[in-house]
C-alpha cells in the first residue's frame, strides 16, 4: 500500500489574530468540525483547536488553504497528529 503523506512540502502556515475578534489562518488542510464555541481543523503543523464564544466561519477555502473566523477567540491549541509514544498496541500491530 502506498502512503504519500510526508512526500510533499506543507503549505505555509500563518495565524493572524486581530483584537481577539477576527482570526485568519492559512495552511489549512481540512476542517474537522465547528460550532459556536469550538473550531477543529488540520494544518501542516498538526491539529489546531480554536475555542471561544459566538464563533462563526466567515470564509473557508480548502483549495487555497485559508480560513477566517469571527467571534471572541479565547484559546488556540495545537496537537501533533501522531503521538510521539509510537501509538498503542493496535497501531504497532498494523504498521
Quick summary:
The chain contains one helix and six strands, in the order ββββββα.
Task: Give the arrangement of secondary structure elements.
Blueprint: E1 14-18, E2 22-26, E3 28-34, E4 38-43, E5 46-61, E6 66-79, H1 89-93
Antiparallel strand pairs: 1-2, 2-6, 3-4, 4-5, 5-6
Describe the structure.
About 5% of the residues lie in helices and about 55% in strands. With about 100 residues, the protein is mostly beta strands. The longest helix is centred in the last third of the chain and has 5 residues. The protein starts with 13 loop residues before the first strand and ends with a helix. The N terminus is likely disordered.
State the major sheet: 6 strands, antiparallel
Rg calc: 15 Å
CATH class: Mainly Beta
Shape: globular
The DSSP helix count reads 1
- Supply the helix-strand structural class: mainly beta
Total number of distinct structural domains? 1
CATH architecture: Sandwich
From the structure above, extract its key features.
95 residues, mainly beta, Immunoglobulin-like, 6 strands, globular
Amino acid at each position: 500500500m502506498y502512503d504519500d503523506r510526508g512526500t510533499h512540502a506543507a503549505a505555509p502556515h500563518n495565524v493572524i489574530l486581530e483584537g481577539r475578534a477576527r482570526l485568519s489562518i492559512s495552511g489549512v488542510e481540512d476542517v474537522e468540525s465547528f460550532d459556536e464555541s469550538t473550531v477543529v481543523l488540520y494544518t501542516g503543523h498538526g491539529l489546531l483547536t480554536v475555542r471561544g464564544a459566538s464563533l462563526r466561519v466567515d470564509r473557508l477555502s480548502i483549495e487555497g488553504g485559508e480560513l477566517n473566523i469571527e467571534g471572541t477567540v479565547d484559546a488556540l491549541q495545537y496537537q501533533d497528529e501522531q503521538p510521539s509514544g509510537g501509538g498503542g498496541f493496535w497501531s504497532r500491530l498494523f504498521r
